[in-house]
Amino acid sequence: MIPARMGSTRFPGKPLVDLCGKPMIQWVYERSVAAEVTDQVLVATPDQEIIDACASFGAKAILTSATHPTGTDRIAEVANSVLADVYINVQGDEPLIDIATIRAISKPFEDPSVLMASVYAECPDSEAENPAVVKVVTDLKHNALYFSRHAIPYPRTPRLQPLKKHIGIYAYRRSVLMEYPLWAQTPLEVSESLEQLRFLENGVGIRMVEGRGSVVSVDTPEQADEVRKYLATAFPV
Predict the structure, then answer these.
(1) Which of 4, 86, 118, 219 is the Cys-Cys partner for 92 at CB 3.0 to 4.6 Å?
(2) Under the phi-then-psi rule, with left for phi > 0, alpha for psi from -120 to 50, and beta for the rest, what region is 174?
(3) Does any domain span residue 234?
(4) Does residue 218 contact residue 232 with C-beta atoms inside 8 Å?
């Protein structure tokens, strides 16, 4: 599932921004298909423009409510009519998402006790104090303990391992996904503005797997320019 909407505060219309001849949503869709973890990749959107764009390159898109506060809520709506055991949420602003990362997030579900999973990578020093880069700390069994925009854990003594940067891709079993919209927003979720904390605050464990972050995700027009430069180098005409 790829949640996407036109109403981004920082970059309105970004799912359809042109990136070297394709709308961004098409890049995300094609990389999701290339991961080959499922025979069904869907776009979930409240916008007819995105529905029409997806039809132009052969992707199936489903129209959802415009009132959803998070992408997870949007996916949960679609899950009411599209039945599956596990749903993978690939963010619609990740045109360069690593295919191996999509594959990695499916692996934890070989364990029937895993209800939800996400991905981390090593956080470079240059991003340690950037609140736009979310960090995660895990227990010894690779379950998330907490997510924060701060550089956690605080280095009261020298760190014994690198900071972990959270990569915004999620996977959920159907049972827990369908519960999510029924829960009120939680205090830590609101404080950090991180939807995944609602799961932790309701006692749902999140299994973390190591992956690779995107070269750049697109939150601003300037980042779209960065993606164009990368694509022009990686796939020269």
Answers:
(1) 4
(2) alpha
(3) no
(4) no
Determine contact, residues 195/72, Cβ cutoff 8 Å. Answer: yes
Number of domains, the chain: 1
How buried is residue 105: exposed, middle or buried, by Cβ count under 10 Å (0-12/13-18/19+)? Answer: buried
Count the helices and strands in the chain (H runs, E runs): 8, 11
Q: Per-residue pLDDT tens for 165-187?
A: 999 899 999 999 999 999 999 99
Write out the two tokens for 5. Answer: 């909407």
Which tokens hold the place of 196? 């995944």
Range of the domain at 184: 2-226
Q: Among residues 209, 34, 208, which one has the least CA distance to residue 104?
A: 209
Give me the phi and psi of 235, to 5 degrees please. -130, 65
Question: What is the tens place of the pLDDT at every residue in 56-83?
Answer: 999 999 999 999 988 899 999 999 999 9
What CATH number is given to the structural domain containing 144? 3.90.550.10
Q: Token match 């701060």: residue?
A: 150
